[in-house]
């Protein structure tokens, strides 16, 4: 009897090692330890055995039964792990964008045209001794308006449709001129810096207007700064950027924070001055509003106006990018369309 049990165990082990699937395993379980299984029939045959036999064989049978159940449980766990591995092998996904990009014939990881142009301009200004400053998108009234000589109820606030926060004290900056104020607060003259970044206005969107766009503010403060200095830096910037002769015009422009103020326009490069949707059919594009910093602004920034003066400008980065790459609609810039941004990879 005991020998028979040993044989049964080794027979089971051989059968178990050949099992691959769960259904096969459940059949094997029934065959050995099920109600009508091999182990049960041995136990049943004990009814004719002596007490002594019953004791030893019974105990051994139970041990074997437990060993079989344990081996089956272990095999179930093994099969389940193999099933998961097989699924992972079959259903894996590349969650990097590579596949989508490859399928669409696109190149990966290009820089956005605004980034490219912004960096190029930063390099030009760094080479001329300017510092690069940053500022927050969420601003207070003081930095966006008051310190820039735009008091409450001043009509110039209407020139810039503002996104206000519920508290009516904070807003999304409408221009990068906020960086002028922050720069004056943190620097002692003489100094010169540029501050690029996103600005926000509640505008109706069309080919030349977006609610989110980019400016690059510039400011220079020192002794005896003149309009000639301002014009020199503006011309230098444009000739470096366009690397060719472009037609520019300077006309008076009103901004409460500069006096005198100018608008520097360039001839529209999309239509070569003929008139199109980008230049609103006038043939010229407003690119560089600028002027000599108003003494009130310098005072608000803590600058001694008996000793120092300065100039400031606010370059419209999106328009510059559009002229540079012949983009005929500003809405492409924030479209997020890879077919658009991919074109600028190889700069
Ligand atoms: N902040 C002005 C605007 O966004 C532009 C500007 C900057 C004008 C600096 C003059 C000097 O409209």
TrEMBL record:
* Cellular component, GO, one term: cytoplasm
Xref: PROSITE patterns: AA_TRNA_LIGASE_II
Recorded superkingdom: Bacteria
Kindly indicate whether the keyword Plastid belongs to this entry.
no
Q: Which GO terms describe its biological process?
A: phenylalanyl-tRNA aminoacylation
SUPFAM superfamilies (alphabetical): Class II aaRS and biotin synthetases, tRNA-binding arm
UniProt keywords, alphabetically: Aminoacyl-tRNA synthetase, ATP-binding, Cytoplasm, Ligase, Magnesium, Metal-binding, Nucleotide-binding, Protein biosynthesis
Q: Where in the cell is it found?
A: Cytoplasm
User: Where does the chain bind Mg(2+)?
Assistant: 259
Reaction catalyzed: tRNA(Phe) + L-phenylalanine + ATP = L-phenylalanyl-tRNA(Phe) + AMP + diphosphate + H(+)
User: Domain Aminoacyl-transfer RNA synthetases class-II family profile: where?
Assistant: 109-323
TM stretches of this protein: none
Q: Per its Swiss-Prot or TrEMBL entry, what cofactor is needed?
A: Mg(2+)
> What detail does the entry give on cofactor binding?
Binds 2 magnesium ions per tetramer.
Query: Any idea of its EC number?
Result: 6.1.1.20
Subunit field text: Tetramer of two alpha and two beta subunits.
Q: Which family does it belong to?
A: Belongs to the class-II aminoacyl-tRNA synthetase family. Phe-tRNA synthetase alpha subunit type 1 subfamily.
Know the name of this protein?
Answer: Phenylalanine--tRNA ligase alpha subunit
Q: Which lineage do the record's taxonomy fields give for this organism?
A: Bacteria, Pseudomonadati, Spirochaetota, Spirochaetia, Spirochaetales
**Underlying gene:** pheS
């Amino acid at each position: 009897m005991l020998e028979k049990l040993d044989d049964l165990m080794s027979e089971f082990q051989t059968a178990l090692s050949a099992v691959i699937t769960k259904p096969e395993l459940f059949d094997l379980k029934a065959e050995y330890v099920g109600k009508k299984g091999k182990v049960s029939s041995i136990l049943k045959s004990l009814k004719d055995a002596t007490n002594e036999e019953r004791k030893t064989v019974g105990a051994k049978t139970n041990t074997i039964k437990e060993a079989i159940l344990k081996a089956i449980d272990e095999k179930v766990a093994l099969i389940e792990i193999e099933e998961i591995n097989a699924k992972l092998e079959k259903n894996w996904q590349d969650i990097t964008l590579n596949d989508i990009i490859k399928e669409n014939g696109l190149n990966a990881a290009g820089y956005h045209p605004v980034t490219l142009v912004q960096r190029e301009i930063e390099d030009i200004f760094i080479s001329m001794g300017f510092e690069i400053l940053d500022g927050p998108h969420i601003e207070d009234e003081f930095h966006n308006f008051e310190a820039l000589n735009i008091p409450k109820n001043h009509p110039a606030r209407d020139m810039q449709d503002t996104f206000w926060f519920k508290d009516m004290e904070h807003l999304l900056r409408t221009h990068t001129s906020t960086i002028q104020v922050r720069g004056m607060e943190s620097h002692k003259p003489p100094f010169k810096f540029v501050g690029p970044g996103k600005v926000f206005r509640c505008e109706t969107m069309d080919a030349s207007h977006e609610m989110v766009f980019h400016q690059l503010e510039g400011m220079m403060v020192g002794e005896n700064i003149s309009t000639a200095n301002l014009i020199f830096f503006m011309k230098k910037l444009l000739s470096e950027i366009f690397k060719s002769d472009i037609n520019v015009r300077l006309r008076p422009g009103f901004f409460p924070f500069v006096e005198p103020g100018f608008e520097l326009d360039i001839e529209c490069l999309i239509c070569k001055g003929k008139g199109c949707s980008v230049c609103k059919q006038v043939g010229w594009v407003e690119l560089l509003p600028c002027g000599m910093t108003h003494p009130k602004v310098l005072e608000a920034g803590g600058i001694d106006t008996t000793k120092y003066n300065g100039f400031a400008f606010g370059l419209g980065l999106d328009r510059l990018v559009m002229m540079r790459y012949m983009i005929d609609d500003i809405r492409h810039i924030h479209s997020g369309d890879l077919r658009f941004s991919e074109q600028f990879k190889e700069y």
